[in-house]
Write a structure and sequence with these properties.
Blueprint: H1 2-31, E1 33-34, E2 49-55, E3 61-67, E4 75-79, E5 83-84, H2 86-89, H3 93-97, E6 102-107, H4 121-135, E7 144-149, H5 152-161, E8 167-171, H6 177-184, H7 199-203, E9 210-215, H8 224-230, E10 238-242, H9 254-263
Parallel strand pairs: 1-5, 4-6, 4-7, 7-8, 8-9, 9-10
Antiparallel strand pairs: 2-3, 3-6
Helix pairs in contact: 4-5
Length: about 260
């Protein structure tokens, strides 16, 4: 009986190790869900827009769209979530252009018309910085707001803390992906995670005001993530709790829209 138990434990241990190895090598597929679009895809939006291409140092073309307001007060640099492409994300642009801000959205590597694939966290941050630097040639940083949603919040915070935008806005941010894994998948060891996205580390270096929006019914990134970030707040930072809001659909939330009207006035 004892031998059988030991053999069973060995099998379980081997299976666990193999599972961890598998998760290490396929984690990009578990974190990122890109929608690929053909290079000649035609976008249709109900606001004026311009497609932009940025060629990175490794000769990868990144694609983004600049949505233009009638009379612009500045630019919102928007880093979207982990699924889809600008085909769907671009549908929310009119919310911000109607508030008289230009809005730029970037499709990450492998998303939409952007070439390549995401292979590591440093590359992800580097791409975002490269595109931001290009847009700084068109817009004064005093008129730029960085806005990140979900997976984009880590990169948005990193970008904000290493540059000087006027404001940082985070929609449903995580404390870090390591923290999320500890909270959601207890049996998976955090050290196998290649993408730490440690928002907490970058957050304390942000000199500009930060506004966080988070739904208290978020089923993807637990609301406690923002409560942890709140413990790191400066006097100029704000957490706005959206009551009854899940992870998706925040841009249509009346409380969110009302608050953004005041923030962007």
């Amino acid at each position: 009986m004892k031998v059988m138990v030991l053999n069973l434990l060995k099998i379980i241990a081997i299976a666990y190790i193999l599972l961890c190895i598998l998760l290490y090598f396929i984690q990009e597929k578990l974190i990122f869900y890109p929608q690929k679009l053909p290079a000649d895809y035609t976008f249709h939006f109900d606001t004026n827009f311009e497609e932009l291409h940025f060629n990175t140092q490794d000769n990868t073309s990144l694609h983004g769209i600049l949505f233009k307001a009638g009379s612009s007060k500045g630019l919102i640099f928007y880093l979207h979530g982990n699924a889809g492409s600008l085909q769907s994300w671009g549908q929310i642009a009119k919310i911000y252009t109607d508030m008289h801000y230009d809005l730029f959205m970037l499709d990450y590597r492998g998303y939409g018309k952007s070439e390549g694939t995401i292979s590591n966290e440093k590359q992800f941050y580097s791409d975002v910085q490269f595109v931001y630097s290009g847009l700084k040639q068109k817009y004064n940083e005093e008129k730029i707001i960085v806005l990140g949603y979900s997976i984009g919040t880590g990169a948005a915070t990193k970008l904000a803390c290493t540059n000087n935008p006027r404001l940082l806005i985070l929609q449903a941010p995580y404390f870090s992906l390591t923290d999320m894994m500890n909270h959601t998948f207890h049996i998976v060891p955090p050290f196998i995670l290649k993408y730490k996205f440690a928002t907490k580390t970058f957050f304390t270096a942000c000199k500009m005001p930060v506004v966080i929006f988070h739904g208290d019914k978020d089923e993807v990134i637990y609301f406690g993530s923002s409560l942890k970030l709140k413990e790191l707040f400066k006097s100029t930072d704000t957490l706005i709790t959206l009551e009854g809001q899940g992870h998706n659909g925040m841009s249509d939330n009346p409380q969110y829209l009302s608050a953004m009207q005041k923030i962007l006035h």
